[in-house]
Amino acid sequence: MGKKMKEAILNGKIISINDYNQEKMSRDLQCRYCDASLSYVREHPRDLGDRRIIVSRHFKLKPGSEHEEGCMNTVGGSLKNIYAKHADNEIMTKEDETYKVRILLVDNTTDFQSSSDQKDTVNNKKGRKLNYIPTGKKTAYLSTIKSIMRLRSELDNNSEIQNKLTLEISSNTGDKINVRWRNFYFDSSEDESYRKMLNYLKRKHDHSICVDGYIKEIKPIKDGYFLNLLPQNFSQEDNINKVSIGYYMKDQDMIEKLKNYKNKRIVVYAQCKFQKKTSFTPLNNRSNEPITFYYHNVKGNIYDKNQILLIDD
Ligand SMILES: [Zn+2]
Prior knowledge:
Bound molecules: zinc ion
Number of strands: 20
Number of domains: 2
Largest sheet: 9 strands, mixed
Distance between the termini: 20 Å
Oligomer: single chain
């Protein structure tokens, strides 16, 4: 357990994963912040929907080894650090050894315009002011969320963080409601993750969610762009149905940056909504018979660069 690490101690010195050579160097590796023994995980492919992605090399804990309590490479140590940097009662609070973060909607900008291509993109409903980021706290809030996204992206799944960090939204009446991690962070490296997201969004879309996926394309449309993520099949058995996620955005600087990140991993924090189901019927390569695929399209909006975490794997 613990984070996937990019640095280790080798012969008393810090070594970056990029400089480590398993064939030529000692395998006696330690955590950068404590004495825990680490092992090296080489780059390996992973099938994701119809495409194969590459899991980048990293260091991980050796079986049977554990980080010292409070080590920066533990979830607890990382959360403590995030809390110390961003402590604000409206954003993040601490109760004993657990932390709580408020899940807020990213505010709609006044110049946001809908176009025919994305008219069904999320529209913010009125009367839920409690759930928006307080005025003047957008950067502080989103950078806290971004730190949390980074921490989670370095873990294998939600299991370790969900015990230490609770997520909370406020209802219309001001009641506090807990949001489960499995309904907040959807990781494309887990099978059926997007289908679970789709089912959840069909029932509920009154809070922002994180999607951890891969950039498929940046598609220009009237008045902006769509950042489309690599779709995921419903399941390993069902590759006819696919979940496709597209984020509407306008910011030219962000678009330029994203262009260099095609096929790379990204985490996006945004309010999302199921839009519509579309179909596509190409001829099967082998049999030459038509075959129909169904795309279940989820849409979201990106207004701020801090909603995006690009991962340099
Ligand atoms: Zn450690």
